[in-house]
Amino acid sequence: MFEILLNHYPVLLKGLTTTMVVSLSAIALGLVLGVLLAFGLTSRYRLVRWPCGLYRSFWRGTPILLQLLLVYYLLPEIGIEIAPIHAAILTLTLNTTAFQAEIFRSGISHIPAGQIEAARMAGISAWQTRRRIIMPQVFRLTLPPLTNEIITILKNSSLISVIAVTELMRVSEQIASRTFQPLETYLAAAVLYLAVNLVLARISAYLERRMSGGLATE
Amino acid sequence: MLDIALLWEMRGLILQGLWNTLWICFLGCLLALSLGLVLAALRLANPRLFGYPVACYVEICRGTPLLILLFLLYYGGPSIGLRLDAEIAGVMGIGLYGAGYFAEIYRGGFKSIPKGQLEAARMLGISPWHALIRVQIPQMARLIVPPGTNQLIILVKESALISIISVDDLTKNATTIVNQTFQVIEPYLAVALLYWLIIELIARSGYALEKRLANRQPRQAAQQGATPHANG
């Protein structure tokens, strides 16, 4: 295993970089879309809530591999040419949007209604209330499940090797077929995934400790 | 328009895939549930000896993709003399991977039961085994059903990965149909619906079980479970 890591580290690191770029782009895009979808899910209007719920249900209820294949093969079918890596980012984004929206929705539901009523009384607009009062607290509340979601996406990004994106998993497959040492190679890849995820978990735990003050949810 | 006739024509492949997905998931989840319980019990029984190894196992399951584990079993296994059929590698992959998550879920359940109850049981001369069966498991069952259901759903969805190590499951057979007929939407959507159905069934059973366990619980025990600090 160490031999593989030593001999092939430039390719492995390149693969790991692609993995990180794809995952983090999806997470960042999904964060924005997820917040919007969470507002949709908690909307006053049933006409807004219903399609948002359907979207969440589909993307949370089907395997991500199937979603990836569907996006990758469907887009050219309807005349949109897309590079594998973009299809990968798109699928992971659409998927994580649903999961993040659900995390934020549950966070929003933990904000006491009195705060929102007070904001309305004080003449703060609905949008300002969301931006200045609700979301800052929600981000702090939902940090642990958000970290889990980031780790899940990082792990799921290994699937995009199926549509020939040369990320860490794909690179390991190539090394394994060249060196005839699948066990050692995949162990090396596992160690890299594990290392990244452990670091992420540590950063999150640190942030959680630092931001734990100032919550007004009583 | 959706071509339903095409799906009817290909029903053999879809049903075969459904059957394979179902039995592999069933055995995989069974393995995950039982191995997870063993891990959690070991950790609880002797934290000094098993605490660290089990915690490491849990971290590995959480931190590495299932796909890597499947590749290790299926492609890496032969280098240490472990030759597995793709289906068996799938069952083992899902089982070993899920066990890490279930060990944590069980642990949460065990930890939620106030220590005083176990001490009381011991004082009354109830054997540890009896206390486990009669005191701990009935109370923790209620608590672990929701996260357990969640985890089972995740495992069913992740089971789609076994198609990559050439198991003829729902996902693989859908791709086969796509390649044969050049129709993309129908096969993938049909299969997505089937996964959705399986998952919905698990979710509903989970709710039903949760309700039943909550009703069966004597009120006093339910209250104790809700406020562990009151007597611990």
From TrEMBL, chain A:
Q: Which residues form a coiled coil?
A: none
UniProt keyword Transport present:
yes
What are the TM regions of this chain, as residue ranges? 20-41, 53-75, 186-207
Q: How does it sit in the membrane?
A: Multi-pass membrane protein
Q: Name one Pfam family in it.
A: BPD_transp_1
BP terms from Gene Ontology: amino acid transport
A cellular component term, taken from the record's GO annotations: ATP-binding cassette (ABC) transporter complex
Q: Which SUPFAM superfamilies match?
A: MetI-like
Q: Which residues form the ABC transmembrane type-1 domain?
A: 16-204
Main site of residence?
membrane
The protein's matches in InterPro entries, at most eight in alphabetical order, are given as: AA_ABC_transptr_permease_3TM, ArtM/GltK/GlnP/TcyL/YhdX-like, MetI-like, MetI-like_sf
Q: Which GO terms describe its molecular function?
A: transmembrane transporter activity
The keyword Phosphoprotein is annotated on this UniProt entry: no
Give the keywords, sorted.
Answer: Amino-acid transport, Cell membrane, Membrane, Transmembrane, Transmembrane helix, Transport
Q: Where is it located? A: Cell membrane
Record PANTHER family:
L-CYSTINE TRANSPORT SYSTEM PERMEASE PROTEIN TCYL, MEMBRANE COMPONENT OF AMINO ACID ABC TRANSPORTER
Q: What is this protein called?
A: ABC transmembrane type-1 domain-containing protein
According to its UniProt entry, this protein's organism is marine sediment metagenome
From TrEMBL, chain B:
Q: Which organism is it from?
A: marine sediment metagenome
One GO CC annotation, please? ATP-binding cassette (ABC) transporter complex
- InterPro entries noted in UniProt: AA_ABC_transptr_permease_3TM (IPR010065), ArtM/GltK/GlnP/TcyL/YhdX-like (IPR043429), MetI-like (IPR000515), MetI-like_sf (IPR035906)
Tell whether Mitochondrion is among the UniProt keywords. no
Give the GO terms filed under biological process for this record: amino acid transport
**Membrane-traversing stretches:** 20-42, 54-75
Q: What is the membrane topology listed in the Swiss-Prot or TrEMBL record? A: Multi-pass membrane protein
| Keywords attached to this entry | Amino-acid transport, Cell membrane, Membrane, Transmembrane, Transmembrane helix, Transport
Which CDD domains does this chain map to?
Answer: TM_PBP2
Q: Where is the ABC transmembrane type-1 domain?
A: 18-203
Tell me where it resides.
Cell membrane
Q: Does the keyword Transmembrane helix apply?
A: yes
NCBIfam families named in the record: HEQRo_perm_3TM
Give GO terms: molecular function aspect only.
transmembrane transporter activity
Protein name as annotated: ABC transmembrane type-1 domain-containing protein
Q: Which PROSITE patterns match?
A: ABC_TM1
PANTHER family named in the record: L-CYSTINE TRANSPORT SYSTEM PERMEASE PROTEIN TCYL, MEMBRANE COMPONENT OF AMINO ACID ABC TRANSPORTER
